[in-house]
């Protein structure tokens, strides 16, 4: 099966929605070939602005466009969007709650060879603490398309986390309809809940299959919407399965697993184990090798699932 | 500019200076120095130049103003109150918990504030975005932005300076409030941005230098900017920090310190005298 990276799906979605929504403008910071906004640029050259290698200017220019009724998609690598331009995202987009969409590609360690300076493992934590910021993390091409749609339909700032690596389709286009703040139940089960986001959904699906083969019943959920988070669904998983594994291509501190745990601890505490990067920077290597190095794998999800099941009361 | 018009603007400017003193004194905090230096620039923009309507603050065709040096909020609030966007009664609530008049301007709380600012260096980029939107929509509104001379030490200003020139934003006019002082001292001693005119020229801008307290020069510069095609204009306005209040003028200490009751009283008396002298002239 052909693999499509979520960044590629992002570029395609922008070009597609650009036909319908004439207020969409796309900005990039000299990475349009990598973020795939080039696809939009070719179709709508007048509505594309290359700001050059200047991410702070990128974000605040997008803010200015938004004050005049445009729907700007400010696009660059996640490490620059959420890191380098954090103050601009916070003060010029988040604080005035402007209608800017941030397309943040190359998130996580799976960009591979470029190494730690370019691998963003803190963006979920940074973005979800900005009041009013929506944080989306699609797992495949179709969910990316849906996340772009949600971003357009939502009035306010949205951060969309995208990957560089090609991934298999989980959903068929036209058969997935995302709702802001809602997760996607892939299967229900009673022994352990696995909640995954982004690239790790693929590993979670593999893990669930292997666990099922061992007779373990898995409640499996894809969570493309990290903020607002699906509280009802998280509580249902906790009540039905009694323990949870979270999986994310991000530092376990402050990220998706933390967001899930915040919901649980205040409402219905159950044991949680987190699969993610354990408070480390990334390193260079082939994407597959880097993912294995940091144990961002189905095997690790299985290990954690078995550990957390023992913690059930 | 005819004498009567100039006199009228001078009176408004003096009222605005009084308001800056009243606001900062009521709050017990705020930034009087850099508010007082920009008074003539904003007075001219808001009372002569800009197409704005307090009854329709969201008119898509209105001219835009971005206060990039957001700490000069008392100046912006004073002007907005004088132009009817907010009530003058609100001004004494400046920086207080139940007031909408935040320490730095919040566009979601105050009509007429076009952008929430306060973190320095971001306003020029925002103004670029507004100017780009005007070009995209084929609208002829103009965008004005006020930068501080200390503020241009922020690298983002130069990113934005490149963008404005690259996209030929001739519908954008920036003012540089060149009062020479920042919190820690003279800008040339803290981190010199000089020569600012040569820098903006090198970045592809049309540069005009004026006395920033002279309404005739401000008018001439704003009108000249409107004739420049294919590039943005910066008006480098030589100003005096704390202008209009004898003991605040050119004193670095008045950057972010509010006058106490006695100081405020003294400042208001001085300003009242200036106003009376203008009345005599009129």
Automatic annotation (TrEMBL), chain A:
It holds the Pfam family Transket_pyr. Gene3D superfamilies: 3.40.50.920, 3.40.50.970. Residues 4-170 form the Transketolase-like pyrimidine-binding domain. Keywords: Thiamine pyrophosphate, Transferase. One of its GO terms (molecular function) is transferase activity. Its cofactor is thiamine diphosphate. Belongs to the transketolase family. This is Transketolase central region.
Automatic annotation (TrEMBL), chain B:
The lineage of its organism: Bacteria, Bacillati, Bacillota, Bacillota incertae sedis, Caldicellulosiruptorales. Belongs to the transketolase family. Its cofactor is thiamine diphosphate. SUPFAM superfamilies: Thiamin diphosphate-binding fold (THDP-binding) (SSF52518). Keywords: Thiamine pyrophosphate. Residues 11-266 form the Transketolase N-terminal domain. It holds the Pfam family Transketolase_N. It comes from Caldicellulosiruptor hydrothermalis (strain DSM 18901 / VKM B-2411 / 108). This is Transketolase domain protein.
């Amino acid at each position: 099966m052909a693999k499509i990276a979520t960044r590629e799906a992002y570029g395609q979605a922008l070009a597609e929605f650009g036909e319908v929504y004439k207020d969409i403008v796309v900005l990039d910071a000299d990475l349009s070939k990598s973020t795939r906004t080039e696809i939009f640029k070719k179709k709508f050259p007048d509505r594309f602005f290359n700001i050059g290698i200047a991410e702070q200017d990128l974000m605040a220019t997008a803010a200015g466009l938004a004050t005049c009724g445009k729907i700007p998609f400010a696009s660059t690598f996640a490490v620059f969007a959420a890191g380098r331009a954090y103050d601009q995202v916070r003060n010029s987009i988040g604080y005035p709650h402007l209608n800017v969409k941030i397309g943040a590609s190359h998130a996580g360690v799976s960009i591979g060879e470029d190494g730690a300076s370019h691998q963003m493992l803190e963006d979920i934590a940074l973005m979800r603490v900005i009041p009013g910021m929506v944080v989306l993390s699609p797992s495949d091409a179709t969910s990316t398309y849906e996340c772009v749609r949600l971003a357009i339909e939502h009035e306010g700032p949205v951060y969309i986390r995208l990957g560089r690596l090609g991934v298999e389709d989980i959903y068929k286009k036209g058969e997935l309809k995302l709702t802001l703040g809602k997760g996607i139940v892939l299967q229900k089960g009673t022994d352990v809940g696995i909640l995954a986001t982004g690239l790790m959904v693929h590993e979670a699906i593999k893990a669930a299959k292997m666990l099922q083969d061992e007779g373990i019943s898995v409640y499996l959920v894809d969570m493309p919407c990290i903020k607002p988070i699906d509280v009802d669904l998280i509580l249902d998983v906790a009540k039905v399965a009694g323990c949870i594994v979270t999986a994310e291509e991000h530092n376990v501190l402050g990220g998706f697993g933390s967001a899930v745990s915040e919901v649980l601890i205040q409402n219905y505490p159950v044991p949680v184990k987190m699969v993610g990067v354990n408070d480390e920077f990334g390193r260079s290597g082939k994407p597959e090798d880097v993912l294995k190095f940091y144990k961002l794998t189905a095997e690790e999800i299985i290990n954690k699932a078995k550990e957390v099941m023992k913690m059930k009361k | 500019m005819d004498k009567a018009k100039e006199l009228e603007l001078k009176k408004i400017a003096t009222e605005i200076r009084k308001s800056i003193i009243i606001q900062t004194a009521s709050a017990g905090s705020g930034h009087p120095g850099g508010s007082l230096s920009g008074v003539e620039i904003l007075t001219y923009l808001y009372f002569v130049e800009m197409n704005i309507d307090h009854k329709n603050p969201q008119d898509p065709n209105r001219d835009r103003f971005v206060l990039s040096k957001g700490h000069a909020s008392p100046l912006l609030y004073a002007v907005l109150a004088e132009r009817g966007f907010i009530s003058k009664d609100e001004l004494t609530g400046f920086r207080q918990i139940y007031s909408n008049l935040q320490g730095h301007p919040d566009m979601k709380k105050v009509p007429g504030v076009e952008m929430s600012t306060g973190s320095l260096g971001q306003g020029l980029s925002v103004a670029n975005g507004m100017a780009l939107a005007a070009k995209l929509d084929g609208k002829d509104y103009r965008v004005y932005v006020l930068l501080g001379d200390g503020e241009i030490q922020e690298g983002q200003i130069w990113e934005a300076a490149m963008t404005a020139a690259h996209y030929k934003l001739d519908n954008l006019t920036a003012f540089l409030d060149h009062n020479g002082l920042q919190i820690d001292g003279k800008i040339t001693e803290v981190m010199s941005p000089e020569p600012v005119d040569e820098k903006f020229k090198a970045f592809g801008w049309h540069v005009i230098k004026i006395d920033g307290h002279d309404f005739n020069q401000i008018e001439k510069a704003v009108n000249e900017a409107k004739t420049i095609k294919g590039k943005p204009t910066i008006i480098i306005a030589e100003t005096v920090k704390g202008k209009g209040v004898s003991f605040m003028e050119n004193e670095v200490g008045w950057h972010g310190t509010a006058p106490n009751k006695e100081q405020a009283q003294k400042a208001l008396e001085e300003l009242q005298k200036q106003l009376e002298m203008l009345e005599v002239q009129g």
